[in-house]
Design goal:
124 residues, mainly beta, 0% helix
């Protein structure tokens, strides 16, 4: 059974940085896709970034390009999201999700497995 556990959320001032981690277990495929999504109160869940595990290709939403970096740590079996130059509008619950393959643009409906989320709050 696939399990995803997020960590690293917290509160930071605008311009600061946070690093989120997603620990994945139970995925028996050598290649698959891991995505990061976020959902702010009253808004739809949106895709932020995704990475093809095994291939390495990445995709970013326009709103985070140049500020966020998604990467995989093979030793720890985690996917990380480094978030720099954070803005108040980045405030949301952040979720990681897994799918058999990546599709573009990133879409919530493509990911069957989800973590519980970690809160990110950016104050001005």
């Amino acid at each position: 059974q696939v399990q995803l556990v997020e960590s690293g959320g917290g509160s930071v001032q605008a311009g600061g940085s946070l690093r989120l981690s997603c620990a994945a277990s139970g995925y028996t495929y050598r290649s698959y896709c891991v995505g990061w999504f976020r959902q702010a109160p009253g808004k739809e869940r949106e895709g932020v970034a995704q990475i093809a595990i095994g291939g390495g290709s990445t995709y970013y939403a326009d709103s985070v390009k140049g500020r966020f970096t998604i990467s995989q740590d093979n030793a720890k079996n985690t996917v990380n999201l480094q978030m720099n130059s954070l803005k108040p509008e980045d405030t949301a619950m952040y979720y990681c999700a897994a799918a058999l393959w990546c599709t573009t643009p990133i879409a919530t409906t493509s990911f069957p497995y989800w973590g519980q989320g970690t809160q990110v709050t950016v104050s001005s």
